[in-house]
Specification:
single chain, about 180 residues, alpha+beta, YbaK protein, five-stranded mixed β-sheet, four-stranded antiparallel β-sheet, 7 helices
């Protein structure tokens, strides 16, 4: 089921809204390449006060849980090395940090990255971090359910606004790996 774009008052091509996006996200959209045309990426203007999934669902309806995806920044540690990675899972699931993520990163320990690290290193706002425009050194782990969805509602890099992006485009992001079971129960 695609995201019902008519549920939102203001939906425009993301490429026409670069001034509303954080610089890393705007740069990624300006330099977009891949099999999904940039015109298929949409920007939805939303109130920053309802950026969190729970509040969005309360405002727009329960359908949103099945059609939105959360991007979580994790830190995998092995020895003295720390690897930051982004994990993208459907909003009604949680990231399997200590199983799938830890193994994928080859880490002895994995945990959610501290907020100041996630925000500072991504150049995005807390509550709006998105896999589009992240540092190229970061692995992007995409749950197969996200990759298989026709469209997912994701962060836009800031608390204001969301992006509607085909799952296929998310699976093709630079540094992306699609994983079964990344999002659990």
């Amino acid at each position: 089921m695609p995201v019902p774009m008519d549920a939102f008052d203001d939906v425009r091509p993301a490429a026409e809204c670069l001034d509303l996006l954080t610089e890393p996200v705007a740069a990624a959209i300006r330099g977009w390449h891949g099999s999904v045309p940039v015109e298929e990426l949409r920007y939805v203007d939303t109130d920053p006060a309802i950026a969190d999934t729970e509040l969005l669902v309360e405002h727009y309806g329960a359908w949103l849980l099945q059609q939105s995806a959360n991007c979580v920044v994790v830190a995998g540690k092995r020895g003295g090395e720390v690897t930051l990675a982004a994990c993208l899972v459907l909003s009604h699931t949680r990231v399997d940090v200590n199983g799938v993520v830890r193994r994928q990163l080859g880490a002895r320990k994995a945990s959610f990255a501290p907020m100041d690290t996630a925000v500072g290193d991504s150049g995005m706002e807390y509550g709006g971090i998105t896999p589009i425009g992240l540092p190229t050194a970061w692995p992007i782990l995409v749950d197969s359910a996200v990759a298989d969805t026709p469209y997912a509602l994701i962060g836009s890099g800031g608390r204001r606004g969301k992006l509607i992006v085909p799952g296929k485009a998310l699976a093709e992001l630079p540094g992306a790996t699609v994983l079964e079971g990344l999002g659990v129960g």
